[in-house]
TrEMBL record:
Protein EC: 2.3.-.-
GO molecular function annotations of the record: acyltransferase activity; methyltransferase activity
Residue ranges occupied by any N-acetyltransferase domain in the UniProt entry: 3-166
Descriptive protein name: GNAT family N-acetyltransferase
Amino acid sequence: MVYFVRTASERDADQVRALLVETFHATYDPFYGALQVQRMVDGWNSTAAIRSRILKRGGEFLVADNGRELGGIGYAAMYPKMAKTAMLHQLYVKPACQGEGVGRDIFAELETCFPEAEIMRVEVALQNLRALSFYERLGFSEVDRMEEWGAPNSGLPAIIMEKRLLPH
């Protein structure tokens, strides 16, 4: 199946939420359990929160679309805490599409969206070995660790990874 990467619109919010619910459960249930994952999804990925990310100035929200369904999503924005740094907040690929290059294609587009950025940063759940491997293949390397991934008091440790971006 061929997916085309495009900018998300508000019309995509419900499909994005459905993709995130499916992908979060497939990815994180083995580590955190279904109840904790559902709380994460409901807290971070409500339709209203997704719409606000899609509309956020200075951010870039992309979807991989085959004309019938979404195969993946990516969202990044400039990181206000660090100069010349773009933060990759979300890059999720539907389980049935993983390993087909959808995530790589979304990332390839995202890394060109921030001409003022010199670094792309991402936080990856410590137990998510598949994602860690994916980001390493894209050229990211570990720069730090944190105890609270996703939200304060989450109790979810993470690895912070960065990639130096080529000048545009």
